[in-house]
Amino acid sequence: MSTTTIAPVRAEAGGYVVRTAGPQDIGGARAVMLDTVYRDLRSGYVPRWHADIIDPEAAYLRPARCTLLVAERDGEIVATGAVRDRGPQAPPNPQWVADRFPSGTTAQLCRVYVAPEHRRHGLARRMVRELRDFVARAGGYEAVYLHTDPAVPGAEPFWRSLAGEVCDERALPGGGQGIVHFELPLPPEAPQPLPFK
After folding, report:
1. Domain N-acetyltransferase spans what residues (predicted)?
2. Segments forming the whole domain that contains residue 29
3. Position 175 in a domain
4. pTM for the complete prediction?
């Protein structure tokens, strides 16, 4: 299990609690992720893209430099956000994008999903803030990368408000995969929490 944690659990406005996921949260997190890939992304489950959704514990909870966060309200998981320690692969991504964000030194933000009825409450921004803090505490990362599907309502403007565009595949010959690649500023190194005595 990952030993790097987020800030202490606290309720936010609206009764939302953002925290590091544990094994008891896997079912709820998986439901949010699968709902999103079917409803918003409209791709459905594609094994080569979504294997981490089927086994989030192996993808995010066990590796020390990865994490899965959940937002909970009234006992229900309503949002997710994750960091994995690998960059985009080529193919299907452009080779130069893969070269810019190599695995091992790239923290990839992924699965930042909020159930529709819980959007517009600042949960995605809170997730990104907590994930960036995790990256700083984990150490060893040289870049923070993510990609998004601009066909998802609100996704592209949200990420443009936080990150710099690296590549908009819609401008490539043939349109590529139609996704937009972004880089977030690397957070300053966060101090490690002091151990209890």
Report:
1. 16-189
2. 13-184
3. yes
4. 0.86
Bond prior to 91 in cis (omega within 30° of 0) = yes
Domains contained in the chain, number: 1
Q: Which residue has the tokens 């984990």?
A: 138
The answer to whether the peptide bond before residue 188 is cis (omega within 30 degrees of 0) is no
**Tokens standing for residue 113:** 């999903």
Backbone angles phi, psi at 25, to 5 degrees: -95, -5
pLDDT at residue number 13 = 57
CATH of the domain at 22: 3.40.630.30
The two tokens of residue 64 are 């020390």
